[in-house]
């Protein structure tokens, strides 16, 4: 009899007890707004920023309402204006080009490789057409960041890293988000720290961070930020920077702070699940795994593979067979978006562009979550089910 998987791909771990207790303590005060503090009190949001900056080795940090807000705030701080061209990956999620288009700027897509990272040759060819690159480490895959930053420096590109899928990851020992001018993270439920919604921004540039703090809605309360640049950087900007409110509140910050210390342990558990899946699918005819470079310290919270030898009808049937056996795969191939699987040609607010290499990749690409509520035995079973259904 065929195996059936009965687990839930969207069930996350419970919020840690320490975070629940911290959140209840904030609720008891009634002071949820980040600036609603009493004399001598730092506030949970300010402490979260200080602790996350230390964890990433960044000088400055800002906590905001969502990962998407973080991207838009970073773009504004970098000086992106209506009509400006902004480079980004052809394979990413809708909030990335959405943040660009929301400013009236123009997303310019760069090809991606079969390894699911930005095509650095195509980036070099397009680098002179824009001033900013919003680099998406999509589904946790990190490109050769040393070469990318060489290209960026040669063409005077400001790099903003979208690290929604790479909190806790690194390239050549440098944490994801610390290569470019700005790193943006998400703390939405399906990310590596969970506050339902939320975002974090890091930077070593005092003027960029001062501008982002002002944009986020600090009014003249920026001295209450602990992971912030000196006041002089705000004085030069405070009358010319619009308030685009997107602050994180103290309640969500309280939920997140205890999760910083436990992130390395969760990363180790995700990667253990990832290795079980990779071992279970290794050598399956017609199925291509995505290699992980030696310099990449990844976070395996999701898993991707390709069926490059099969057309859309066979892949659609494969996905349907797995769904009947309890395995939820997301396929990026269909022209019509389904959930988060939209593609660059789905975003009609961007000008029509053609990326033939990216088209070939996403047509064959399948994706699944590896929540920490799964045991290694669960993942081994999922791998067996997938392997048994791959078209021969």
From TrEMBL:
One Pfam short name: DegT_DnrJ_EryC1
Statement: the UniProt record of this protein carries the keyword Transferase: yes
GO molecular function annotations of the record: pyridoxal phosphate binding; transaminase activity
Keyword list, A-Z: Aminotransferase, Pyridoxal phosphate, Transferase
GO biological process: polysaccharide biosynthetic process
Superkingdom field: Bacteria
Active site: 191 (proton acceptor)
InterPro entries documented for this protein: DegT/StrS_aminotransferase (IPR000653), PyrdxlP-dep_Trfase (IPR015424), PyrdxlP-dep_Trfase_major (IPR015421), PyrdxlP-dep_Trfase_small (IPR015422)
N6-(pyridoxal phosphate)lysine PTM positions: 191
Family indicated by similarity: Belongs to the DegT/DnrJ/EryC1 family.
Protein name listed in UniProt: Aminotransferase
Organism: Paenirhodobacter huangdaonensis
